[in-house]
Specification:
With 70 residues, the protein is mostly beta strands. The chain is built from one helix and five strands, in the order αβββββ.
């Protein structure tokens, strides 16, 4: 149950939307800006989904503090 409440309070570091859906274990998708998010050690890691389905990290675009779960 803790994970469900985590999803409700998580905010996309890119667009600040809370419209985030769970797609796997510790993996989420922002329906507003279409990026994939994963969580490790209370930090949100951001990824762009490429045309071939691979993921490119977007972490370098955000300060580490902005990617911390609150």
């Amino acid at each position: 149950m803790a994970l469900e409440s985590e999803v409700l309070t998580m905010q996309c570091p890119n667009c600040r939307s809370k419209d985030i859906g769970k797609i796997g274990v510790n993996q989420y998708y922002c329906w507003n800006c279409f990026i994939e998010l994963s969580i490790a050690k209370n930090t949100i890691h951001t990824h762009q989904v490429e045309e071939d389905g691979t993921l490119s990290s977007l972490d370098d675009l955000f300060e580490e503090e902005a990617r911390k779960l609150s």
